[in-house]
Amino acid sequence: MAQDRRGIIIPLLIIGFIFFSPDPARSPASRFQERPTIEDAIAEEQRSLGVLQNSSYGDAIHSSTLNLTGLEPDRGYAWEALPRIRDRAAQQLEYALGDAGRQALEGELMDPDVSLYNNVTGFLHGQWVVSKAQEEVARPHLNLSSYAQEGRSGERHLSRFGRNITGSAGMVSIRFREREQPVHYSSAVDAYNATGIGAEMSLKDTSTGDEYELQLQGTYLPSLGQAIMTTTSEKYAGIFMLPHFALSQATFQEAKALLNDSISRTIERQKQGDTTALNPWAANVEASVANPFEHPSCELIVYLQQHEASGLPAAAVSSAFRPSALVSFLEHELRFPTGAFMPTAPEMRFSMLAFSPDCGYILESKGEPDFVPQEGRHLAGPKLEVLYRNGRHHLLVFTLALGAQIILLKRQMNEASTPSTRSRISFYSISILSLGDGFTTMTFLLISLFITGLWVNLMGTAFIAFVSVSFFGMRFIMDIWTVQAPERARRAREVAEEERQRRERLVAALERIRAERRARQATTPATTAEVPAHGDTMPNANAGADLPAAPHSDAQPVSESLPLPVTAQRPIDTGATPVFMPSDQDRLEPVAQTQTANPGTEPELRMSSFGSLYTKFYLLLLATLFISLNASSWPAGIRRVYFTSLALTYLSFWIPQIHRNVQRNCRHALNWEFVLGQSVLRLVPFAYFYGYEHNVLFAKRDYYSLTILAVWLWIQVVILGSQELVGPRWFVGKDWAPPAYDYHPVLREDEEGATMPIGFSEATASSAPTSPLVERPASLSSPTARRSSVAKESKPRGKRVFDCAICMQDLEVPVVDSGGSSDSTLTGGLLARRTYMVTPCRHIFHSNCLEGWMKYRLQCPICRETLPPL
Ligand SMILES: [Zn+2]
Ligand SMILES: [Zn+2]
């Protein structure tokens, strides 16, 4: 007897969640694997800070005064290249800002009038190429044995480094992190107004397809528009030597003072046990995932040089405003909107120079003057405030789409208000739609934690999605579930019945084997001793061959639960009318055809309650959410496959409806308005994330996946439409679907009496007086019933005219000649057959009339015979 083991699933799922969910609290400490305690790490940081404080600009990198991790001569880093890198960065600065920039760099001109953004927040995107300076720089000869992490196998190659760029071109994205408050410091040299800056960088190597993500920390000098950032790791104390990358004595002092201040404050916080400051300069984005097999990664020093804002309105620039003042005004207005008239804020534009001291590569942003603007415009992107403003607009559109979804759902619920119409709708289709809304709710709640600037808007949208899923979606699902309960019960009974028959067959076969053996032993008692092996095996083989034939004796085919099509030969005696379950008559339990003799062997009926369904719904939702969260840190290729297949699964929501239409041979379960509307609206978020470049999540454009998703969804819509027009089963084989009653039979002149609607001709009506079915309409005293039983012979051949008992109008019906072939009926008569419906009790109506009637009662309007659901 099968035990109910479903209870085990829930604890397993919970364990799965715990296993899969990222654990940010524990991991930063484990980054310091080499250093046993946090105290050691702090001591090392304090020592490095001391080295920084005592160093001065131009100290030879390998000198003993700069005793920092990563600078030891025996490491083999390419520090010889640093002067060349500084030169190149200075060239970029001069190109961007001209002479004024050069003077400002040397501290000669403190306030160059350049239109630069002071506050860099936002997102940059562009292409990189290998720098011209690369040829002049020898590749480093890394002392790989100094990497203690790798070594068990003795196999250490530079190629196994993470972030090792080997191609010649690729894409780069930089997202500046917004600080809660700008870190200003009080120092004697306040001229540059330096601030600390952090960024997430994503480097994609087009030739290898590799994509790396890293975190950078550094300083930004607003008056120069210059950011210098670096990675920091266990093998390279980048942040402590950052000032030495500065391009001039003056900027060195500035950076040194700033870093002294901010680093010592961070160390203070670490001492006080602030867990968020445990590893404040980690370069790995997934610093939370402690991976013992992690390869060391290439370090990176990044120079970013802001270009002057272009596209400012000429009138504004030439008037009273100085360019710098105009940009400051724009920036202030963006951050603290007063509603003042404002020209569109131009994009930020930076040129980039990235140098890896250990892997030796030098990358540059692609742009002028080495490339024409059509090929590359360095790194450009909107400011965060612009991004947020756009994000708010996008969210508004998305919320409107959600609202439209709710309206569509509401209208569909009103339309499907009767049990009969509800029973046509696929439970799973609506469930998938609701799961999608639930997923949206959860995702927006999560995103709102990270994009603080859009918190209110995201929460609002999440609330709409929540209303959609909990107030409307779940109620509709519950309604459908309740209406379809008898259907599930019947299916469960059928499964149980099949199981019982299988068992009976087995028992019968066994009985036969025993009987045969007994018979053989009785007839040939002497031979058993001579050939025992042969005698034993033979009956078994016979029994196996007999087995399939056995069920004929007592089997009740499942198909008997539905009435035969009218075109089939019907027994005259209607006492054997098959029992089926109309869905609006739940209380009417069908009589079991064969009552089992021994109830002890009957298998249990498997039916789940709505409560367990509810639990499953939310568990599935949570599981998807947790796995998706986890997936966001997977490698880019796998991540893309995961999210695309998740999207494909979600966008298959019409498949269950198509299946249900086929199974029940019914059509028009859902409004066309609902189907088309949902198919458009559900694609909106995908179009946004896959097709729109400046989306809030910075997801990459992927027209290919978007096309696949859209085409897939609309194929389903087309199939649904064809089911409506041609018939629910036109694309499946006859034997694939369970038998179902056909309301639109071909009417033939030659099959009189048995198949034609009552009243086909006077002769037909009188020829079968014994049938109670035929007699019943006549016995009803209402004149309509009597009228319907009289068919008028019409003029054109192949047409008959009946009366529809519902609307009292004429109903012209095509009739095939007695000699007509079936081919012509399939092609020409298909749509014509959709205009009328013949009930199992052989009454004929307009399709519209009877469909309207069947929304409310599954009974023949004339004779009250039960009708199979449509
Ligand atoms: Zn009618
Ligand atoms: Zn009837």
From TrEMBL:
Q: How does it sit in the membrane?
A: Multi-pass membrane protein
MF terms per GO, please?
A: ubiquitin protein ligase activity; zinc ion binding
Region span, Disordered: 517-559, 762-794
Q: In which pathway does it act?
A: Protein modification; protein ubiquitination
Q: Name one GO cellular component term.
A: Dsc E3 ubiquitin ligase complex
Q: Which reaction does it catalyse?
A: S-ubiquitinyl-[E2 ubiquitin-conjugating enzyme]-L-cysteine + [acceptor protein]-L-lysine = [E2 ubiquitin-conjugating enzyme]-L-cysteine + N(6)-ubiquitinyl-[acceptor protein]-L-lysine
Domain RING-type per the UniProt entry, residue ranges:
804-864
EC category: transferase
Per its record, how is this protein called by name? DSC E3 ubiquitin ligase complex subunit A
Q: Which organism is it from?
A: Salinomyces thailandicus
